[in-house]
Write a structure and sequence with these properties.
This protein is an all-alpha fold. It folds into 2 domains: 144 residues, no CATH class; 58 residues. Helix content is 72%, strand content 0%. It contains 9 helices and no strands. The two termini are 42 Å apart.
Length: 216
C-alpha cells in the first residue's frame, strides 16, 4: 500500500499540477484556519459550518484538509493522500453548496453564490495527482527511489531491510556468545571430573580449544 502512495514517474507534468493546486488551495485554508486574506479564522469558520448543518468532526476535517493538504502538495509528501482529501472537500462543496448556483463563478455579482467551475478545476487537478502521483522534485519520489524491488513481494524499503538485517546479526552474535559460555562451563566441569589424570596446563588448553571450536 505504501508503495502505491509514493509511486510516481518523476515527471514535470505532475509537478506543475500539484504546485498549481497547492497555490490555489492554500489561501482558502489559511482564510478558514488562520484568518489570513480576510478570512473568518478557525472559530468563525467552525461556527459557520456547524450552523449550516455540518457535524463538528466533519467540519474540522474539512478545515484542516484545506490547510494541510496544500502543504503536503507543495512538498510532494503523501501527494495522493492530500489529493484525495482535496477531492472529497471539493465534491462535498459542489453537492451541498455550489451546485444550486450553476456553473459560473459570481464574476459580476449577479448570482446568489458561486458556481462550481472553480471546484471542478480543483477536483480535476486532484484526480490527476491521484493517478500520477507527485512527479519530480518531491519527497514521495525520494521515498519511492529508496525502495528496492523484489520478485516475490512488494518492494520493501531499504532501511527496513537494513534494520531487519541488523536485528538478525545481533541475535546471531548473542547466540554464538551464549554457545561459547555454555561450552566453557561444560568443559570446566568435564576437566574437573578428569581430576589428577590431567595436568592443569593441559586442562586449560583443552578448555580453550573446545570453546573456540564451538564458537566457530
Amino acid at each position: 500500500m505504501i508503495d502505491w502512495l509514493v509511486e510516481t514517474n518523476g515527471g514535470v507534468v505532475p509537478l506543475i499540477l500539484r504546485l498549481t493546486l497547492a497555490v490555489v488551495m492554500f489561501p482558502h485554508g489559511a482564510q478558514k484556519t488562520l484568518g489570513w486574506f480576510g478570512g473568518y479564522g478557525f472559530r468563525g469558520t467552525m461556527a459557520y459550518f456547524t450552523k449550516s448543518g455540518f457535524p463538528p468532526a466533519l467540519a474540522f476535517l474539512a478545515v484542516m484538509t484545506e490547510l494541510l493538504a496544500p502543504l503536503g502538495l507543495a512538498l510532494g509528501l503523501l501527494t495522493r493522500v492530500a489529493a484525495v482529501g482535496i477531492a472529497v472537500v471539493m465534491l462535498v462543496a459542489i453537492l451541498t453548496v455550489h451546485d444550486q448556483h450553476g456553473f459560473f463563478m459570481n464574476w459580476f455579482g449577479a448570482q446568489a453564490g458561486e458556481g462550481v467551475e472553480y471546484h471542478l478545476l480543483a477536483l480535476g487537478l486532484a484526480l490527476a495527482l491521484i493517478v500520477n502521483g507527485a512527479g519530480g522534485w518531491s519527497i514521495d519520489a525520494l521515498i519511492a527511489h529508496s525502495c528496492a524491488p523484489s520478485m516475490s513481494r512488494p518492494a520493501p524499503c531499504r532501511h527496513v531491510d537494513l534494520a531487519a538485517t541488523m536485528v538478525r546479526d545481533l541475535h546471531g552474535r548473542r547466540a554464538r556468545l551464549d554457545g561459547v559460555g555454555e561450552a566453557s562451563f561444560a568443559a570446566i566441569g568435564e576437566a574437573a571430573a578428569v581430576g589428577a589424570s590431567s595436568t592443569p596446563i593441559m586442562s586449560l588448553r583443552w578448555i580453550s580449544r573446545d570453546a573456540r571450536g564451538t564458537a566457530r
